Amino acid sequence: MTPEERSRLESLDAVLRSENVRERIRPIVERVRTELARRKEALMAWKPIPLTVFGGALAPGVRSAWVFVLRAGADTGAERHPNSHQRMMSFDGSGDLQTGEPGQWQSNVLVSNLEAPLERRWISIPANVWHRPVVGTDGDWAVVSFHTVPADELIEERPDSSSQDGTKQKKYLEEKKREK
Q1: What is the CATH number of the domain that holds 114?
Q2: How wide is the angle at C-alpha 146 spanned by C-alphas 152 and 13, nearest 5°?
Q3: Which pairs with CB-CB distance under 8 Å and at least 24 residues apart come from 115-118?
Q4: What is the dihedral of CA 115, 142, 78, 81, to 10 degrees?
Q5: I want to staple 45 with a disulfide (CB 3.0 to 4.6 A). Which of 35, 54, 125, 142 is the partner?
Q6: Strand pairing of 104-106 and 95-101?
Q7: pLDDT, tens digit (0-9, with 9 covering 90-100), for 53-102
Q8: Apex CA 119: angle with CA 140 and CA 49, to 5°?
Q9: Number of folded domains that form the chain
């Protein structure tokens, strides 16, 4: 990790250590947990966090924030974001945010203990880097994720052998609209 990237993560970490911010995020996490519990077949559920929750403390490059809750035992498969650098913190529970290429994954086990070192709680994933969350069976995993594009522009790309270029793209918020 470069010193510049470490500084970015430390800045985000300071914001998320604020009890005021955490108190505003917890109800969002609970709503997403409730949605995941309702959708028995889903591996994960998510919701954007209004940037106002952070009280203007985010760096200018942060354009959206999200809560994701991943089901215990889930492996959501490979994905990447061609239009955004993702910075993600383990908020509640733990999981392995693997990075690399399908078949050549590097493990990055993240925990939610605020006393753990930064590298054990945060991960930085540049645009176009494949990643895949793998969650243990001991409990769901809630994460807070920051992106460099607005929520309505965030693209998820997944491998798709049936398409001409080998991938399939969708926008997270478009999928949310279809589910309602």
Answers
A1: 2.60.120.10
A2: 160
A3: 118/6, 118/9, 118/10, 118/13
A4: -90
A5: 35
A6: antiparallel
A7: 999 899 889 999 999 999 999 999 999 999 999 999 999 999 999 999 87
A8: 50
A9: 1
